[in-house]
Structure formats: structure tokens, C-alpha cells
Amino acid sequence: MHYGEIKNCDIANGPGVRVTLFVSGCTNHCPNCFQPETWDFEYGQTFTDDTMEELVGMLDKSYVNGFTVLGGEPMEPRNQQDLLPILKSIRDRLPQKSIWIYTGFTYEKLTDENSYCRTDATDDILGIADVLVDGRFVEELKNLRLKFRGSSNQRIIDLTATREKGEIVIMDV
Q: What is the distance of C-alpha 59 from the center of its chain?
């Protein structure tokens, strides 16, 4: 898997200070995407074991609240197999840190057995993550007043509560 950038002090993509990984590759191609260069699966650098250790080092600070993955598209089928061990490692090594994932796919598509974006890693990823911000960015629904999302169709799903309740639980942010 390739990635375009790692931010070690992000306050825009989840609560508090976060470490953010922008994975490469996206087939959604949302009009007016803020990072169209990340549509290319080969954009940026290759994610390596050294990259993983760098991430853990950034995350292992008391002032860092958690880890956020965006793109590109982290939930592209091609990215999920590589993303899963990264998330497992962070969860195992730093269980107190929250994990947020941004995706242009909806939760319903990710959990639909017949969907393009569903793989054998999808349930494990959704089982590790705490929050899923889902839905494509839609320019006509853009709203700069929204916290942690760009357009009003996007939802901030509390995955922990969703797993417990058996139905989608939207976070109040």
C-alpha cells in the first residue's frame, strides 16, 4: 500500500490531536475532492515496517488522542488487506487511542455481501475502528460549519455503539 502523507499533529479529522495517514488509491473520484492526487494507487511512498514504527512513535505521546485514516480511499478493496494489520498493530500496542476511518463508501455498502467495497477484511476493520465517517463528499452539500466532515450527507458513525446496539448510531459532535 502507498500513502501520500502522514500528519503528526492533525486537529481537523477527529477530536483532539491526532496522527493522520492519507492512503493512496481511490476509484470514487468525487468532484472537487481536496486530494485528487491520492486517487492514484501508486502515489506517494510505500508503507513499510519503518513507517509503522514511525506511526507508533508519533501516536505514543500523552497529548495524542488517536489515529485517523483517510485517503484516497482506505476502504478500497485493494487497500483493506494492507490496512488491517496496521490497525491491528495500533489497537494492540496503543489500545487507549481512538481509531477513525474516513470513507466515501457508506456503512451499508461496506456491510453488503454483494458490494464492490466488501472484502474478507472489511468486518475486521470495522470491528477495530471506533468511528467511521462515511459517504462521498458532495460539493452541493458542502458545509464549512460541520465538524469533522465536508458535506452534510456524510455521517459520523460510532462503531462501538453500533456494534453494541446492532443498528447505526450517529455520534453527536
A: 16
